[in-house]
């Protein structure tokens, strides 16, 4: 009887585990049933996520959300954007309010192992910097003794700033804000001597100011800030979709597939990698339970990574950022690298 009891208990545990696993694998199904992807984005910073004059969200993160909707529905409009503050973004994802975060979120060890979330893949490399008035006379951060510094609550930038000033035995006064626009307003009003956050976001903030030339971003960088999409830890299928979708956008640039030539490439290319990427052969879509042409549809709708970058924050935009580490790995200094899609 003891043996039968052990067997029964094991069977029950196996049933519960199977049931729990099945219930966890529901994100894609829930999105399809809802008819809409819900994407967590920044509350507003140029280059990543900011409404234009018509109230339409624009930016790198926004377009990555639209592209993911295309991968699922072949329709970039089937996405609802949820602007989230730095202090609420991970809670909103964990509670199921959003399906994915494309929201200037740095991967760190503690975030990865303690929040019940997964960082899917890095799609942007940045570093912490400081912005202050161009006429301040300050040329390096070590000269900012006793400075009042605007910071965003709930970001890695709080810790990076405190750690650096402690390391050089220099006091400073932090002023914390919930949102980037609040910190920017305080900086312009003179409540802070400087604003500390990731350099790309500083460039976006400066681009939205009435007089961008009045502000300078110091050249020093004090941290590694790899941005990545975040998903909940309990759904391996959804993790795979977000991860390989992002790699596909990068891979398209590596292969020279663009929004304008994708159709021709799909029709004429003899490159096995390109044929797989564009769904001429179906295995990538089948593996992710998506349409065989999912990546082709994405590239046609939003372009490859280079196209995304150049139109949202590149040198010809008001943000005006050179690609730097966000170049492909085949270019000098580039870190972007798509794992093999095969």
From TrEMBL:
Stored InterPro entries: Bact_solute-bind_prot3, SBP_3_CS, Solute-binding_3/MltF_N
DNA repair recorded as keyword: no
Residue ranges, compositional bias (Polar residues): 257-274
Transmembrane segments: none
Residues annotated as domain Solute-binding protein family 3/N-terminal: 36-258
PROSITE patterns: SBP_BACTERIAL_3
Keyword RNA-binding annotated: no
GO BP term (any one): amino acid transport
Keywords carried by this UniProt record: Signal, Transport
SUPFAM superfamilies named among the record's database cross-references: Periplasmic binding protein-like II
Signal peptide, first to last residue: 1-24
Renumbered residue ranges of the record's region Disordered: 257-277
Source domain of life: Bacteria
Family stated for the protein in its record: Belongs to the bacterial solute-binding protein 3 family.
Protein name: Amino acid ABC transporter substrate-binding protein
Species: Siccirubricoccus deserti
């Amino acid at each position: 009887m003891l043996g039968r009891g052990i067997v029964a208990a094991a069977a029950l545990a196996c049933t519960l585990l199977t049931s729990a696993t099945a219930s966890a694998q529901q994100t894609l199904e829930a999105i399809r049933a809802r008819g809409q992807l819900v994407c967590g984005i920044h509350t507003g910073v140029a280059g990543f996520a900011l409404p234009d004059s018509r109230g339409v969200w624009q930016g790198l993160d926004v377009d990555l959300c639209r592209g993911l909707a295309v991968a699922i529905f072949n329709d970039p409009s089937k996405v609802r954007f949820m602007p989230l503050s730095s202090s609420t973004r991970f809670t909103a994802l964990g509670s199921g309010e959003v399906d994915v975060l494309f929201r200037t979120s740095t991967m760190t060890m503690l975030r990865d192992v303690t929040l019940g979330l997964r960082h899917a893949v890095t799609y942007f490399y940045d570093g912490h910097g400081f912005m202050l008035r161009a006429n301040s006379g300050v040329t390096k951060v070590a000269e900012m003794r006793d400075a009042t510094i605007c910071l965003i609550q709930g970001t890695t930038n709080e810790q990076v700033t405190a750690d650096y000033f402690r390391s050089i035995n220099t006091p400073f006064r932090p002023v914390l804000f919930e949102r980037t626009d609040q910190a920017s307003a305080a900086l312009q009003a003179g409540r802070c001597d400087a604003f500390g956050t990731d350099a790309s976001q500083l460039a976006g903030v400066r681009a939205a100011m009435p007089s961008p030339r009045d502000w300078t971003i110091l050249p020093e960088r004090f941290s590694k800030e790899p941005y990545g999409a975040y998903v909940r830890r309990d759904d391996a299928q959804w993790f795979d979709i977000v991860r390989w979708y992002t790699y596909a956008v990068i891979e398209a640039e590596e292969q020279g597939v663009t929004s304008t030539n994708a159709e021709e490439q799909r029709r004429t290319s003899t490159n096995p990698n390109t044929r797989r990427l564009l769904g001429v052969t179906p295995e990538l879509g089948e593996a992710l339970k998506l349409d065989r042409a999912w990546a082709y549809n994405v590239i046609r709708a939003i372009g490859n990574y280079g196209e995304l970058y150049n139109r949202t924050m590149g040198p010809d935009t008001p943000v005006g950022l050179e690609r730097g580490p966000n170049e492909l790995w085949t270019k000098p200094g580039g870190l972007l690298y798509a794992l093999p899609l095969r």
